Amino acid sequence: MHEFELDTPLGRIAGLRGGQSGAPRVLALHGWLDNAASFVPLAEHLHGIDLVAPDLPGHGASAHLPPGADYSFAAAVNAVLDVADALGWDRFALLGHSMGAGISSLVAAACPQRVERLVAIEALGALAEVPERTVSRLRDAVAAMRALPGKSLRVFPDPTVAARARMVAGAQVGSRLSESASKLLVERGVMPVEGGFVWSSDPRLTLPSMQRLTESQVRDLVAGIECPTRVIFASPAQSYLPDELRRERAGLLPRGELIVLEGGHHLHMEDPALVAAAIGDFLTVPRDG
Q: Are 132 and 122 in contact, with CB atoms under 8 Å apart?
């Protein structure tokens, strides 16, 4: 894959691109605090597509949102559409992992006229919240945002130390990463400063969301995804999306299928051949096929 940059209304978007020009168009959206390198291992096993993996705003080498802006799912939908517009793509498929799969779900539901196919890995829809948590979530998010300017970034002496820290952080939330996968993400996710390296991602990405959809809203969203959809989940399931719930959501897809594979949350990086086999020729089927 090779580097690319695009100018969008939200600022510069950087990323990686590979595959065949003129082949079926696929936008690959990475997970939270990951970057375009998330798809490097999988790209080696996907053939017959034009694969574009952007660093989403605030991630990797892409620009941060302006001061006062919020990293919401709604804003991410427009960011994805801005990338597609800058590429000149009127219609395309989406390949998303984790947060990227959640964003892809929203884009597919919101713009059925533009999204041909969807492969969602380790997420479908968005994280839901019970209505009774609305006020406490809002208060926590505002307090965290107001406190952020007083915090300093951790400086790592070299990228290797950052990679190990990324592995530890992932393990703490049930997302174990091998050293090789962590290094891929970290190489694209740090920037040099005096005394070492810091994360290049926007610190605002670590703040709690001000609001979330309810489960009923998420289910309506999933049911509104009209394109053919292939959902790939790892087993065992993540604690925040139990197996019963993710199966219920997948069952709402009008043209969907669910595949469960043994592996961890980053299975597309840790076992890319297995995930590529599960995707098969799904992304290369002719338009509207």
A: no
98 catalytic, yes or no? yes
Give the integer Cα–Cα distance in Å for 5 and 17.
10
| CA 156 – CA 160 distance, rounded (Å) | 9
98, 175, 182, 200: which one is catalytic? 98
Its pTM stands at 0.95
CA distance 263 to 235: 6
Q: Could you tell me which residues come within 8 angstroms of residue 122 by beta carbon, excluding any fewer than 6 positions away?
A: 31, 97, 98, 101, 232, 233, 234, 238, 265, 267
Walk along the chain (289 residues) in steps of 10 and give the mean pLDDT of each run: 95 96 96 97 97 98 92 92 97 98 98 98 96 96 93 93 91 82 96 96 94 96 98 94 97 98 96 98 74
User: What are the distances in angstroms from CA 119 to CA 105, 145, 215?
Assistant: 9, 33, 21
122, 267 Cβ separation under 8 angstroms: yes
Closest to 118 in 3D by CA, of 286, 289, 282: 282
CA dihedral (157, 167, 241, 263) in degrees, to 10, reads 150
Q: CA separation (Å) from 262 to 236, 254, 268, 274, 280?
A: 7, 26, 11, 9, 17
Residue 57: asked if its preceding bond is cis (omega within 30°), the reply is no
CA distance to 72, 223, 227, per residue, from 51 (Å): 25, 27, 19
**Residue 285 structure tokens:** 């089927």
Contact in structure between 114 and 81 (CB atoms under 8 Å): yes
